[in-house]
TrEMBL record, chain A:
Pathway noted in the entry: Porphyrin-containing compound metabolism; chlorophyll biosynthesis (light-independent)
Protein name (record): Light-independent protochlorophyllide reductase subunit B
Gene that encodes it: chlB
Molecular function in Gene Ontology: 4 iron, 4 sulfur cluster binding; ATP binding; metal ion binding; oxidoreductase activity, acting on iron-sulfur proteins as donors; oxidoreductase activity, acting on the CH-CH group of donors, iron-sulfur protein as acceptor
Main location: plastid
Species in which this protein is naturally found: Haplomitrium blumei
Automatic annotation (TrEMBL), chain B:
GO molecular function: 4 iron, 4 sulfur cluster binding; ATP binding; metal ion binding; oxidoreductase activity, acting on iron-sulfur proteins as donors; oxidoreductase activity, acting on the CH-CH group of donors, iron-sulfur protein as acceptor
Gene from which this protein is expressed: chlN
E.C. number: 1.3.7.7
Cofactor(s) for this UniProt protein: [4Fe-4S] cluster
Protein name: Light-independent protochlorophyllide reductase subunit N
Species name: Haplomitrium blumei
Amino acid sequence: MKLAYWMYAGPAHIGTLRVASSFKNVHAIMHAPLGDDYLNVMRSMLERERDFTPVTASIVDRHVLARGSQEKVVGNIIRKDRQERPDLVVLTPTCTSSILQEDLQNFVDRASTSSDSDVILADVNHYRVNELQAADRALEQIVRYYLEKARKRGGLNLSMTEKPSANIIGIFTLGFHNQHDCRELRRLLKDLDIEVNQVIPEGGSVEKLENLPRAWFNLVPYREVGLMTAVYLEKEFGIPYISTTPTGVVDIANCIRQIEALINVWTSILVGEERDYELYIDQQTRFVSQAAWFSRSIDCQNLTGKKAVVSGDATHAASITKILAREMGIRVSCTGTYCKHDAEWFREQVQGFCEEILVTDDHTEVGDMIARVEPSAIFGTQMERHIGKRLDIPCGVISSPVHIQNLPLGYRPFPGYEGTNQIADLVHNPFTLGMEDHLLEIFGGHDTKEVVTKSLSTNTDFAWNLESQQELSEIPGFVRGKIKRNTEKFARQNGITTITVEVMYAAKEALSA
Amino acid sequence: MPIEVSETLTFECETGNYHTFCPISCVAWLYQKIEDSFFLVVGTKTCGYFLQNALGVMIFAEPRYAMAELEEGDISAQLNDYQELKRLCTQIKKDRNPSVIIWIGTCTTEIIKMDLEGMAPELEAEIEIPIVVARANGLDYAFTQGEDTVLAAIVHRCPQHHFTGERKNEKQEFVPSLPLGTDKSMESNEQSPPVLFGSLPSAVASQPSLESKRQSVHVSGWLPAQRYTDLPTLGDGVYVCGVNPFPSRTATTLMRRRKCKLIGAPFPIGPDGTRAWIEKICLVLGIRTQGLKEREQLVWEGLGDYLDLVRGKSVFFTGDNLLEVSLARFLVRCGMIVYEIGIPYMDKRYQAAELRFLQDTCNEMGIPMPRIVEKPDNYNQIQRMRELQPDLAITGMAHANPLEARGINTKWSVEFTFAQIHGFTNARDILELVTRPLRRNNNLEFLGWNDLVRLGR
């Protein structure tokens, strides 16, 4: 037993359900007690989904415990088949149902004989894998099922598409900025004159999965979900994959160069030309993306050597760490991930870009680390945002788990050249926010004690002598008005008419006391 | 699917494929209510994930609850349950020093038959903190019934009531000190003063107390009280009365195990319910009520602007928190037409007075009886809603946005559980909730964006 009240990654079946419900016309049936269908709420609420989430529960109750759930599960699968005519029904065990050790595979076999839909049993081990691992597995399982089905039928088309094409694997529901990322990746591929063969699972159709092997290569933007599928496709069909996340100027270039190398193996034969993306990379880096310029600008110069802490899933934490250290000159005191299963890869990625690495899924450890390091800004999940609130350190959210505000309506990709702009803003804002708060404090804080004059204008009858005016003008603009008001308030309270530098400092001392 | 209209209340039972919250969610409001408690949910990651997401920001406020997350070794009994729980509870005692630890049993502890009830007294003696066990699991219960299991478990911990002068003085402490105390109310204390059960936020709890005190009824205690150490005394002949429609097990336990007398009344939801509730209590205690009718009338008059909005509009309850019958009854009185009352579980004995009240209200208002659907099937309900096109669907969050996208106004049912809806003063809050989608639509109506789903999916 473990004492816990917060977790970074959810239980396994949530991952399976997220993948299943991302496909079009796939219905998931959970073998679960009442109340376990919380994913439906999250999809409806967080994702603001307009359609009913294609997940229902075959309820495990007392009667099921007494009699077994065979008739019920089979009945529910067949019923759903009649009601919604899905292409595929995925029976998903939950942690509760898996202890019952019923032969769910047998129910699936029975149900599939009398339903038009395909029926599969999701392979989930609740006590060994988490949400992300289960999602990865579920996607591979579904892809494998349909490719083997096509192969048995003899209808598998393995010929490569005429023009270079790619599958984007791993975009799915409730993923961190996944919808925006997908749009940006499509744009990137379009710029490179590469067709998108398929995007899975989000919006994908299982009937079309048999066309996956026609792509020239697979792009796996997130390590957490999609890698297993890509590895399977490489092993079975020899389709290479790229798992370098094109996030941050340097890694986008890396990714594009890998793409170039992959497709040039075939273009010379099939299309009769070689692709060269160097000019594109150069143009985008220097002029389309603002990030390279931002790194060079005074704004970013002021961030040099500032301390930051990064925490999140492996993909995002690694990308952000590299961007902060390599592209913005920020000192990453500690970087960490809760993806313990991918610790080795993570360490290798961030090696040399940070001072300390923390791999843990215990949020209190992360909190303690942040308290100890006292960074100027945190880049983490919602949990780190709240830790930051408690410690008065600003935080940019860079990874799941997230709240509704991290599923924005506006366009906010992380990968691609537009992504670099978004990230630059995301990095810049917490630092300046923190800086602003700090300055405010130095100069006497917010006007919270008492309002002396209602008006914000400063045409009062106080005489500021030359030195004090000089001093005032040297205070950064955004706090100057406040300092002036505070000083005059102090002067009024103490019957002073001429404000000197001494009065200013007395006021500052009085107010910060 | 044909929809029939009936002259009397009809009860149906469907498949039970509906969306609701897991009953462990009761820790969310109970840990806030019982200030010196600590809730330990003995379950899996699934339970934890649900709580963490359902509780939202509460989770970041260092709540007095935690998961005892079962691992593979616990499931396969490689680890000793008792030792594990002892380790965790000792830590909780050290860090938080609560007056009571409440173990919430879950589906998993049921299936692996972890003997929480057996271990609790032993561990209680060992670590010297009361341990209460409530099996609030999704195998047996829905949403608010979780509170019922906790309260039913706490009933056993209430001190014994004795009708002696000495005890009476002690009991006085539980009477909230309210400015309205009269000499008469002191007299009524000679009668056995009722204990009310059901968890209400303290601001709300004082109102029924106040209302009944106006009628010279002293409330001698609440189950649960603000602190575990302030539990009311119970015993043979003590009158008890529920304020919520869901604690039926608690009622049973109070009657059977503590020999209390249950006052079966409608629930104090809406001004009509509040009046009927007080009247019933007074009737049982032999007290003549004063000015209640006028008081109710005054509240209704104050609701005029809201009533204009809801009159003649139709409602469909998909059902998830057992407040449905009382809310429907109130809305019928407001002039609404209720098509269907979905409800997870219907205790016809505990809710008898409320059901009768609903039927009377429908007759008086000349509105057809709603059908009451126990263990509803959400899929079927959505088909029925398509046909009926209700003006408002009171439903869970899983269906709210999809229904809105299809042009059906929805109100999230969970809000009724957390909002203050009891007593005369809070009637406004109920209508505030109910009319919110209607008011929103009055603002957006002219835009013509009602149907927002792509066809062909």
